[in-house]
Amino acid sequence: MKCPYCDQEIPDGSAECPVCKKNLMEASNETEPNGAAGGENQSGQTEAGSAGEPAELAVAEKKPNKIWMAGAAAAAVAVVGGVAFWQMNKPDPKDVVIDAFKGVVAEGQTDPMEEIFGWKALGEKLYSDSYQVGMNLTLGELLGSSELQGTGFSINAREDRSSSTMDMDLGFQYGDIPMFNAKFYLDNSEMAIALPPDMTNKVFTLNLEEDLNTQIANSPYLGKSLSDMGMDLQAYADYMKKANELSHSETPMFDFGALWDRYKTGSKAVDNLKAAMTVEKGESKSCPVGDAEVECDGYDVVLSNAALVQFFTETKDFFLADETLKKDMITYLELVYDLNASLYGSEEMAQLYGMESPDMTPEQQQTELWTSADEEVEALLSQLKGAMGDVTLAVYVTDDGKLASFDYSTELSLAEQTVEAETEVAEEESAASAEAADILKLYGTVNFRGGYSQTANIEANLTAEEPSGEKIVIDMAKMGEYEKDKLYQAQLALQVEAAGEKMLFSMSGEYDIPTANYTIDAYAEENDTEVGSIRIDGIMEDLVPGESFNAVVDSLRVTAGPADEGMLLAELSGSYGIKPLEEAVSKPEGESFDILAATEEEWNTVIMELYMGLTSMLSGAGLS
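The chain above was modelled as a monomer; its predicted structure follows.
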């Protein structure tokens, strides 16, 4: 045979020309149906070229055609590969939606309250360090009268955790006249109370080191009286000791932050809900973000009734099985048990105050509470399973993956749910038309308008539409603006409209950072008419974020009706402050009076002294 490219004789059946090295299989594939490669065509010309044309020229003419075909094939492969790669790496709609919702509460967002005041750090220090707290409130005007001007109270408390001691000063004044000043002191060995010196110079003490039951048994007067009254000082001492130990514990009781962390890591409820929900790409929509309208990708989400019921069931099961929560509840019930036992130890006292002592131990009470909670939630979920439809959402996400808005809707059947209605299809079908008339529609929208954080500005509404067409509409708006080192403003408004009536509650605040002046306004409206308001003006002194502050209240005004035209009910002033312990905790000064060791005669003397001192104080204030 001859090579169709170089026209040289080569062995029959060769796949490649041993002379020019061309691939002969390609030539075979291009052979015309009516002849072999290199043969004559119908016009008498050879396949390599016209009669007498050199073979090299025929090859040169074929090369451009082959290059074009190879390029086209490569381009097609690239396009197909690119599309496949894009599809493989395209975000899953469910992941987009889940990540968008996670981003709403993601860590690292600006929190003005923390940046300015450091409330979280301050709360932690209050629980672990030695601190002192002070508060006072003074009346300026009451119901249009200034006769009681100056009347008020003050509280100053200190706690030294290093020595496990605490004290508290309580003061009350009538007008400009100090009426009552008492001091309370507590440590691990003693409790002491001092009343105003004008009443008595005695300091009433209770020894906590020695066994109280023994002290009561040996008490010549008060012990017997307390026993006859059914009061148990030992139980009260146990209560105080346990409460003091808990206050110094490294782990706070009912730590809901830690409980939430355990839920997130230990429960599969959220993961199962995510797996059960369906998400599909929906229509795009323009959403309000900031002051502009932003085009957002839409996603249609369905949370089935079964998935929601399972989620609530698994969540309930987790919390009821949490051992730390059980322990905290038992500890709390033990405290309540000890306090009740100290005050209502006898059947007579318990019946007198309607506080019958429980027959169960705190552990048994906790078990009963958990059982009752489990049954109540299960009953609610059973109703939810039969009455609530699927929850559908239209979720809108910005190009950078932030949640901009979502619409939601579901339906609730108002028809009575029964086991038969759930299990017998025939009954369900026969009652379908009747149930259709008993459907409550729930729907609404939530918009995240952004700002210093995703939750800085939120608009939300809920509409409950009854079968009759009557609607209950709830609107909520949260607004915030923050200029670092300059200004922080926030407002929360809630409005409920039903049956032609409207109720609005609004609360707003402003803090001028350079001057430390603040204003807090709260008011309520009924059918667009203001019915009452509270306004607070003041200044924040000695502010150290996360450590100390003193909020001075220059004016606190409570008004009925419109703020500018209504009736001034009361105007007060005062302050509230927290700071690290500066003043030493101290015992009250005066003559010690052991309340259990004192005799009846000593008690009678003190009681008379207290009576005469109180009479003198009231007389001096013109109240006798």
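The chain has a mean pLDDT of 83.
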